[in-house]
Amino acid sequence: MTNPPAPAPVPATTPAPSPAPASPLLSAEGLRVSFPGRHGAARARAVDGVDLDIRRGEIVALVGESGCGKTTLARSLLGLVPPTGGRVTFDGAPLDYSSRALKAYRKRVQLVLQDPSGSLNPRHTVYDAVAEGLRIHGYGGDERAAVAEALSLAGLRPPERFFLRYPHELSGGQRQRVVIAGALVLRPELIVADEPVASLDASVRGEILALLLRLRAELGLSALVVTHDLGLAWNIADRVAVMYLGRIVETGEVAEVLTSPRHPYTQALLSVLPEAPGAPVVLTGEPPDPSRIPSGCRFHARCQILAGGEAERAGVADACRGQDLPVLGGGGGAQVACHWAATGATTPAGT
Predict the structure, then answer these.
(1) Do 49 and 74 meet the contact criterion of CB atoms below 8 Å apart?
(2) What CA–CA distance (Å, rounded) separates 3 from 95?
(3) Residue 319 to residues 17, 305, 340: CA-CA distances in angstroms?
(4) Which part of the chain is the ABC transporter domain (predicted)?
(5) HSE-CB of 330 using CA atoms within 13 angstroms
(6) Which residues contact 256 (CB under 8 A, 6 or more apart)?
(7) Given the DSSP bridges, would you call strands 85-90 and 26-35 parallel, antiparallel or unpaired?
(8) Is 33 in contact with 47 (CB distance < 8 Å)?
(9) Quick one: which of 207, 239, 224 has its CA closest to 332?
(10) Measuring CA to CA, how many Å separate 186 from each of 104, 120, 209?
(11) CB of 109 closer than 8 Å to CB of 25
(12) How would you classify the pairing of strands 222-227 and 335-336?
């Protein structure tokens, strides 16, 4: 009896290559925005070297104290403030600042402002407020149907019930939904939301955040959410970029940055949240004048790590005071601009 033939050797399989990361929808590269100083003073460097990418369907939170440059950065990404250095690209093409090109660009990228009461003309009905963008851009379709669809997407249903109302007849949450509908009516690919829930009651904030997440899921919408609230970033964002004095000082996936912050500034911002362990970190003084950015790490004058001696023990105190840090890349990997964090330390001794 003959033995059965040996099975043919199974050829080794080559693992499928990892898909290349998607190119960003919106990208800032080495972006700088400065403004003339008063009475011959040095120019104020509001945005002083920023790389930032936003991919399709991604929500990025840009966080930091008031005055750190985040709103100027957002306005520059929208084409409202031309950069003094670097560039903005959208869908692979550099942003063109001619009037005609910007009009086409703003059909694809829309702004949602912080204060819905200030964003809406009190003399205009809800219908006119939402239809305004269609009229500016010469929409040739059924205007009434487009307005109704936008209001429905924003959670105002049935939409016809709101057509003839005025802003003063609406609640704060309803007004913010009208503002969002006005942005959605043009079917943008990306929205820039500047403190979208800061003026709303706590009970309404969750509804607006849930709405933004639903719009991302249903429409594939990308978003840059500008906020000082790290709790909001945790609830809505895929990635977070922490900004201080014109630069991004820490960035990465939101869960990674907010559960294991490496930059002392991020640690201080997180320490004041109600659920944060330990005592809050109270930063001394105000952020420096953007026309007189300090040498070295721009946070060093307020840094609790340097003040507490941790940077000295790690051997980086002189670098903190005198050695500038590079601009962080705009992609999705975890990055931090901090001499102390670069030593591998992320938590001060004794905490």
Answers:
(1) no
(2) 73
(3) 41, 13, 9
(4) 26-270
(5) 20
(6) 334
(7) antiparallel
(8) yes
(9) 239
(10) 11, 17, 21
(11) no
(12) unpaired
Residue with tokens 């307005």: 147
Residue pair 14/41 in contact by the 8 Å Cβ criterion: no
- How many residues would you count in the chain? 351
Tokens 């930063």 locate to 283
Structure tokens at 99: 């009037």
Single-letter code of the amino acid located at 40: G
Tokens 């609790």 sit at which residue?
Answer: 304
Whether CATH 3.50.50.60 fits 26-241 = no
What was the pLDDT predicted at 116? 79
Whose tokens are 């004794």? That residue is 350
Residues of the chain above pLDDT 70, percent: 92
pLDDT tens profile 97-135: 999 999 999 999 999 987 777 889 999 999 999 999 999
pLDDT of residue 348: 66
Whether 77 shows a pLDDT value over 50: the answer reads yes
Mind spelling out the 3-state secondary structure of the chain? CCCCCCCCCCCCCCCCCCCCCCCCCEEEEEEEEEECCHHHCCCEEEEEEEEEEECCCCEEEEECCCCCCHHHHHHHHCCCCCCCEEEEEECCEECCCCHHHHHHHHHHEEEECCCHHHHCCCCCCHHHHHHHHHHHCCCCCCHHHHHHHHHHHCCCCCHHHHCCCCHHHCCHHHHHHHHHHHHHCCCCCEEEEECCCCCCCHHHHHHHHHHHHHHHHHHCCEEEEEECCHHHHHHHCCEEEEEECCEEEEEEEHHHHHHCCCCHHHHHHHHCCCCCCCCCCCCCCCCCCCCCCCCCCCCHHHCHHHHCCHHHHCCCHHHHHHCCCCCCCCCCCCEECCHHHHCCCCCCCCC
What is the reported pLDDT for 286?
Answer: 83
* Omega within 30 of 0 (cis) for the link into 116: no
Give start-end residues of each CATH 3.40.50.300 domain in the chain.
26-241
Query: Which pLDDT score is estimated for 5?
Result: 43
Structure tokens at 125: 């009905």
β-pairing, 59-63 with 109-112? unpaired
Residue showing tokens 């005198």: 322
